[in-house]
Amino acid sequence: MILRRLAASAPASIAGLGCLYGVGGLAVEYARDFVVIEVRERRGIRVEVVDGDVPGGSRNTAYGAAKAFLEKTGLRIGLRIKVYKRIPVSIGLGSSDATAAATTYALNKMIGSELRAPELVEIAGQGEMSVSGLPKYSGVAASLLGGLVVILNTKTLRMASLAPPDNLWVIVFTPHPGQRLGHREGLAEIIARRRPGLRSCIDQSSAVAELLIGVFEKNPSLIGDAVNRGGPVEESVAPTIPGYWDAKDAALEAGAFGFNVTGLGPSTFALVSSDSVINVIEAVTRAFSRNGLRVTAKVVRPDLEGARLEDPDLLML
Question: Which of these, 110, 64, 70, lies nearest to 83 by C-alpha position?
């Protein structure tokens, strides 16, 4: 039996975490995107953005995810999807990933949870790819499953969802709108074309190992050390964020475990303990300000839940 109406949400995420570009992401309690999905008699997919300044229709990741879901399951139904965009767009926190994840999760619940996690991540990833043109699974996986998700095999989409230490907090620094940033067009393509040498590959592999050991041992210092090793991605994104390296030095001197870019920026994040939150916020804010960049700091926790069902009627209030 197919449910006729359902709502779901999915959280923001920090893809990459410095050394996990393309294979890992952390769901965070920054904000959530919501979708309400209704089955309708007429075939086809209709996507309407009720709240948020993003395109509707086929240019929304909800459309691509729904289309991929129907093709995967063979269902011949019509869908009406209302999107409530609560994660700010274009700041590096997986806004489009969350919409695709929430849509995929809701549809799977509507048919009785028949698909497994790897299949859901693949569907949500196709939704994201329908808009960005690039296959990206780390962000949608984190939004779907919650916690720290690492893609163990990108071909078969085997993955693990891990819980970060309880004493790990995240500070997200987001530039105020309308400020001048460095040239950011085509960053993902630029990074994809880079050919890192053997030494860089070895360093990134050891950083990934350090991060995973830090998670298993519940050691924030090891996790932070790994996050700091951003490699080619950090080197490519940093020039587009005024004062990035000064802010990173300031964060670490103020007691942060680690500091890096969120996804491809322009936001940045620091991993901290609860007793260093204020010092890190003040130090990083001052460092960016000295370089002409005003930022807003938001303190969040890792989101361990991932996508979840919501009351559709509450969204109408």
Answer: 64
